[in-house]
Amino acid sequence: MADERIIVALDVRTLAEAKALVDQLGDSIIFYKVGMELFYAVGPQIITYLKSKKKKIFLDLKLHDIPNTVAEGLISLMKLGVDIFNVHASGGFTMLNRAAQRVKEEAAKMGIEPPKLIAITVLTSVNADDWAKLGMQMPLEEQVVRLAKMVKEAGLDGVVASPKEAAKIRQACGKDFMIVTPGVRPAGASADDQSRIATPAQALRNGASQLVIGRPIYKADDPRAAAKKILAEIAVVD
Ligand SMILES: O=c1ccn([C@@H]2O[C@H](COP(=O)(O)O)[C@@H](O)[C@H]2O)c(=O)[nH]1
Fold it and tell me: Keywords, A to Z (predicted)?
């Protein structure tokens, strides 16, 4: 059975490219992330396609708006039938809490399990300089943990954070809390625009529940071989 801890980011702009990558990766990958680049270009047909292939879907649109707009936006997205979706934690406790409640309420009406709702803490691209320029007083890592605790208290299922913060979040939020980490790079791979990175095995050892990996797979000369190498690396980590 494919390892659901790896979520491949389908960061391409056309349905044809997305289909080609999913075909190439075959049974080795079950979970895909659809983000702004692809969803804004092709819309819900990518969700329909992935579902027809029996794939799981993380719809990464990072909603960030007032509570009513976010909650009702999530309900529209939920109707597409995704497995995970997300909002920005910096939208605040009221927004997060309303979103979590509305998703559960609507799922009950629909007679379905609610999709997992998770929140972005601090983007994995943000570095120390960006952080200082934002005028933040608290060290970045402390802020991530603080946001994770707030997300949990608001009733969401987990967070998106970097693998660097995963251990502290796990300690603060417990074993059942989802910690989804982008910013994952096999040893020696380019960091690209990511700042707070770790290898796949290290991310899991730090407490991540799932890893989002894009360019190290889809930009590889042989994406299937790149995915298989990562799967072999994590196979020895519980
Ligand atoms: O903090 C965040 C939140 C989301 N992402 C997304 O994950 C992938 C990472 O892709 P790579 O090519 O492996 O860097 C991408 O779709 C981002 O939008 C993130 O990187 N950091």
Answer: Decarboxylase, Lyase, Pyrimidine biosynthesis
Q: What dotted CATH number matches 6-234?
A: 3.20.20.70
Give the C-alpha separation, 201 to 60, whole Å: 23
Task: Answer yes or no: is the C-beta of 200 below 6 A from any ligand 1 atom.
Answer: no
Mean local confidence (pLDDT), 137-141: 95
Give 65-108 pLDDT, tens digit per residue: 999 999 999 999 999 999 999 999 999 999 999 999 999 999 99
Ligand 1 within 6 A of CB of 210: no
User: In the structure, how many helices (H) and strands (E) does the chain have?
Assistant: 11, 8
Known active-site residue 60:
yes
Is pTM beyond 0.90? Reply is: yes
User: Are 7 and 33 within 8 A, CB to CB?
Assistant: yes
Whole-number Cα distances in Å, 23 to 8, 53, 80, 93, 140:
13, 10, 22, 40, 39
**Nearest-angstrom CA–CA distance, 32 and 55:** 7
**pLDDT exceeds 80 at position 159:** yes
Q: How many Cβ atoms from other residues are within 10 Å of residue 85's Cβ?
A: 24
- The residue annotated as part of the active site, out of 55, 60, 83, 152, is 60
Active-site annotation holder among 19, 51, 56, 62: 62
